[in-house]
Inverse folding.
């Protein structure tokens, strides 16, 4: 008998008559020791389905019908006390955000030991011993000392290891992991997935993995359940689904996933115009000073030089903390440089201020990652897009209104949407509005900071298409900041790989992605998830073989090919 | 929040219907309707005090001193035989004035300081916020006392003093809220579009902190009324025989055992007023929020 047997599960918010269910008659079975991936885009009901198993639905969410059998018992009929003993002890849960899922005011040890005392009725000393063993098992060195540390002393990947240790210490029958690696860098992601798989295999635990990332699915799952609009559209063996998806939706979902095997954008030499953005040995440090003791400042960007030409996309790639976002903000003058010069469209904006800066900076615009925060919630769409024109002055209202309509259509939206408010729009639509706003002042270059990483893959594909189309029509340049190499492949002409504030490799996209010369670039590419179960484990071995040297102290630029340099 | 279908990410399906008027959105919420009704009633009572009150609020010996509530004196009489009902009705005028004016001063000055400090940063920020902290470290009543001492004891000065004493709290709240908004990408996008200081401050920052400030202000109203009452009690605010709820509440303390209604009714009046403004404030915030669901 299956460990978990969900049948006819229907979940809705509010009154049944008025609101359609968010989960609609879902059947799902998880066998003992099986890894099941629940796949779908946002709003598909995948998280709601999983949360209902542990009785953690949001306040207004109600199970309208169906049953959830766990070890033969219907969890929906359990009392609170019974449910609590199941939660944690028999079913563990790992969340997406490693930064917030641990209590910041308790040490790691207190949190680990607490769970063991509550659920396993172990003594303090025994719990401690078990906690240390679990931490060591998850690959954390010096576990005894680590127990006394607080969550902020751990990196994101380490915290996720702690979460896994915490859950697995109880030897649950089922582990639910909701996007466990989405917030992590690719190299860390690979390690965490490996760990997760080894742990559940060792302890014969079943794993319900909720994700939108087909690469993760291919890497992990035995069986895949694809959800859309609250319903299961396809279910089957992992290899079979990737090889021959039956449902139309699954096919489209898989097709929308960018991979490193897609053909890169290639452009013949001399195809680009003049330089629109030039960074000359810019540096920027944060921190330092300190009230009583001088703290060492952190060099976020360290002597970086770059040029972006008209009509060109330069992708800036790196892991979190590499300084790539700071570099984008320096180019925008949202941060000021400590040293070096920023030249936009031929004008040095490093020392400009006030009116002069406001005029020049219109040549460079920005698209942000979070589509929810990048529009003023109190401005209508039309007003948001009109703002740059109103600020520039000189145009009358009718003209502005016409141009807003034209820009909306340019960004693939209806002109009539000008009257809407941001909260009425989907994430993809908001990102289109952000693009329309950026285009309003006819910029020469757009800095795009992870513009698609908060979007579903199908929407991401469309936004990338739109950006490419706009670029080709108007010779726009992009400084495209991302951590996703597959996206780089879709959009970039050239790639700059950043690590700890410095660019370690720079060259044409095809060269860098296919013939990476710097070990760090090689490790990044090797770690990128491959959405193909047949190649499972490949990247793990590839990534493990690469020895990335410690930070180059005073490296020198070395040409390794045509327009292809590395810092060595 | 989209789906793979084209509909979710596709062009807008229909032209947006006109927005429901603000007042309708406010009154459609039960809290808004009740809060607004009480506040309107209070204002009406204050305006029509002369018509409503059966006796003059300051006439002594309208009845026997300290009589308990009866048909003749609905809420009894005080130690001078003044009719409590008439005093409370007239007191509504003054108390509302004090509350609104004092909160108005705190709100305006505090919001401005908070906004400017958050926006300007650097030296201006340090100067404004550190001075606010210094003022914050004294109790409000003490500050109000100091101001009245300088300005001289009168009801108007009490309002100003209470208002100024409340500034740091509003400034702090506004500052925190504005800092949060300032870090959001929409604000930076506006900078990138070349928006000037005034536009950034008053079109982007201000509207996004106003909802928080409104709620704070409705909560602060009770504070202001009580602080003014404290001043009145010390003889620095409303001068006898002026009917003012706070002063009446303080005066009633001496007779609490013999005539509990002397404290009960002014207290109830203050509580009702504060409650009404609080629930109205909550409803206001909801109605001001463009994301509120209650729209057609």
């Amino acid at each position: 008998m299956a460990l978990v047997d969900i049948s006819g599960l229907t979940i809705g918010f509010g009154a049944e008559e008025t609101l359609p269910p968010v989960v609609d008659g879902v059947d799902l079975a998880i066998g003992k020791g099986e890894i099941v991936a629940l796949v779908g885009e946002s709003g598909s009901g995948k998280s709601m389905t999983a949360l209902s198993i542990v009785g953690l639905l949001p306040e207004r969410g109600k199970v309208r019908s169906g049953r959830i059998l766990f070890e033969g018992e219907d969890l929906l009929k359990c009392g609170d006390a019974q449910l609590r003993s199941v939660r944690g002890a028999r079913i563990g849960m790992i969340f997406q955000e490693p930064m917030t899922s641990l209590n910041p005011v308790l040490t790691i040890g207190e949190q680990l030991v607490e769970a063991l005392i509550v659920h396993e009725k172990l003594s303090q000393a025994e719990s401690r011993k078990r906690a240390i063993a679990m931490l060591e098992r998850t690959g954390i060195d010096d576990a005894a000392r680590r127990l006394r540390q607080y969550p902020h002393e751990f990196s994101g990947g380490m915290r996720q290891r702690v979460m896994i240790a915490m859950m697995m210490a109880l030897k649950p029958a089922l582990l639910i992991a909701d996007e466990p690696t989405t917030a992590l860098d690719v190299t860390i992601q690979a390690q965490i997935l490996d760990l997760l798989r080894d742990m559940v295999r060792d302890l014969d635990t079943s794993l319900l993995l909720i994700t939108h990332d087909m690469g993760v699915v291919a890497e992990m799952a035995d069986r895949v359940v694809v959800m859309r609009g609250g319903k299961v559209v396809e279910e089957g063996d992992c290899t079979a689904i990737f090889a021959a998806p039956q449902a139309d939706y699954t096919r489209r979902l898989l097709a929308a996933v960018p991979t490193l095997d897609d053909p890169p954008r290639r452009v013949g030499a001399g195809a680009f115009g003049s330089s629109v953005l030039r960074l000359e040995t810019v540096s920027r440090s944060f921190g330092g000073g300190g009230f009583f003791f001088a703290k060492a400042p952190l060099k976020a960007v360290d002597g970086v030089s770059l040029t972006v030409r008209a009509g060109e996309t330069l992708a800036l790639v790196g892991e979190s903390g590499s300084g790539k976002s700071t570099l984008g903000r320096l180019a925008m003058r949202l941060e000021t440089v400590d040293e070096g010069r920023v030249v936009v469209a031929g004008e040095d904006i490093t020392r400009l201020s006030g009116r002069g800066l406001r005029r020049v900076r219109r040549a460079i615009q920005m698209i942000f990652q979070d589509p929810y925060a990048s529009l003023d919630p109190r401005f209508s769409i039309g007003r948001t897009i009109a703002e740059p024109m109103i600020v520039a002055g000189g145009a009358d209202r009718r003209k502005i209104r016409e141009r807003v309509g034209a820009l909306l259509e340019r960004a693939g939206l209806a002109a009539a949407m000008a009257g809407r408010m941001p909260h009425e729009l989907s994430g993809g639509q908001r990102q289109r509005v952000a693009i329309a706003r950026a285009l309003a002042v006819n910029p020469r270059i757009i800095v795009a900071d992870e513009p698609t990483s908060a979007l579903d893959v199908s929407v991401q594909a469309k936004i990338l298409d739109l950006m490419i189309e706009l670029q080709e029509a108007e010779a726009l340049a992009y400084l495209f900041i991302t951590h996703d190499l597959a996206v780089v492949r879709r959009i970039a002409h050239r790639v700059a790989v950043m690590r700890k504030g410095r660019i370690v490799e720079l060259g044409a996209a095809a060269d860098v992605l296919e013939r990476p010369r710097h070990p760090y670039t090689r490790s990044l590419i090797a770690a990128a998830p491959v959405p193909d179960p047949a190649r499972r484990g490949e990247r793990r071995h590839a990534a493990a073989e690469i020895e990335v040297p410690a930070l180059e102290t005073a490296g020198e630029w070395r040409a390794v090919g045509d327009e292809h340099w590395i810092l060595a | 929040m989209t789906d793979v279908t084209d509909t979710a990410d596709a062009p807008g399906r229909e032209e947006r219907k006109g927005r429901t008027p603000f007042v309708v959105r406010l009154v459609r919420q039960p809290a808004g309707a009740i809060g607004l009704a009480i506040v309107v009633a209070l204002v009406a009572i204050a305006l029509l005090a002369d018509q409503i009150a059966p006796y003059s609020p300051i006439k002594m010996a309208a009845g026997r001193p300290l009589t308990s509530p009866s048909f003749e004196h609905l809420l009894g009489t005080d130690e001078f035989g003044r009719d409590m009902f008439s005093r409370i009705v007239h007191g509504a005028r003054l108390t509302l004035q004090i509350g609104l004016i004092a909160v108005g001063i705190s709100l305006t000055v505090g919001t401005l300081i908070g906004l400017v400090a958050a926006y300007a940063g650097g030296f201006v920020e340090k100067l404004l916020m550190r001075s606010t902290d210094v003022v914050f470290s004294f109790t409000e009543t003490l500050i109000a006392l100091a101001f009245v001492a300088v300005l001289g004891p009168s009801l108007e000065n009490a309002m100003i003093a209470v208002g100024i004493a409340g500034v740091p709290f509003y400034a702090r709240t506004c500052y925190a809220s504005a800092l949060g908004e300032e870090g959001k990408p929409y604000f930076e996008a506006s900078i990138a579009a070349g928006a000037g200081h005034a536009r950034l401050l008053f079109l982007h920052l201000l509207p996004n902190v106003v909802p928080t400030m409104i709620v704070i202000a409705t909560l602060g109203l009770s504070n202001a009324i009580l602080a003014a009452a404290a001043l009145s009690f010390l003889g620095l605010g409303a001068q006898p025989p002026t009917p003012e709820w706070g002063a009446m509440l303080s005066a009633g303390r001496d007779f609490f055992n013999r005539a509990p209604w002397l404290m009960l009714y002014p207290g109830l009046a203050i509580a009702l007023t504060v409650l009404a403004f609080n629930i109205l404030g909550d409803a206001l915030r909801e109605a001001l929020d463009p994301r509120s669901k209650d729209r057609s």
Summary: Chain A has two domains: 4-99+172-256, 301-567. The longest helix of chain A spans residues 186-203.
